[in-house]
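Journal club prep — side note

Before the paper discussion, L.F. wants everyone to see what a predicted structure for a comparable chain looks like in token form. Sequence:
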Amino acid sequence: MSPEESAPASRPADTEDDIISRIEETILSRRAFLVGLGLGGVGGAGAVFGLTRAGEGFQSLATLAGGATLPATTRYYLPAVDGSDSGLVIPVTFEFTDGKGELFVNLNGIEVRHDLQLALREARETATRLTGASLTNTATHVTFESSGTGVLALRGKSWEAGLTVALVASLRQRSLSQETLITGIVDDEGALLPVGETETKARAARAADAQALIIPAGEPTEVAVQGLRIIRARSISEALDRIL
């Protein structure tokens, strides 16, 4: 037999699909293992383990049977006016952990001259109503960021629309950008109510590289800032259609 005939035939390297297929076949063939999982015999109350492709390589998953995926971490930007009537944009981040409906707020040296806790709770109620989701078993962690070193005093309740948008994006697992921002108060029916100092907020939004600012349709002030598109919306649902 010649060396060419005795050499083992080479085969192409396994692809990710090949590896995942073999793992799935192995797991599915072990019925006793799956029954044990279904009865909660492994990893607690029915823990199901698997593999999924991530951006690089593989990512392991451990999802509790009957449990829900936590909302996505979301970062958004809120046009605001400080105590000296200057406009600025405040970054806010929403993160989520297992919990019992708690709401934790980290202001990082920002003094807010209205009931921010109430505004956040109202935003959470609106977001869950719009998405049909529940945060009963989830703790919500909200972090506001200040660019200054001292205490930053802010006023008004116009953040409520932006907070609602960020929460809806988290619950829908959607990403947000700084391209389109919003200012406004959201009432119990989801309507956007007018707010003050809209042009100051618009200038701050443009300075932060926003391309558009959504304002309540009933806002009496005519707003015009070069390079910034002003969009009027009657409701938070209409605004969400523009942003997400």
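L.F.'s comment for the group: The radius of gyration is 25 Å. Keep this in mind when we get to the figures.
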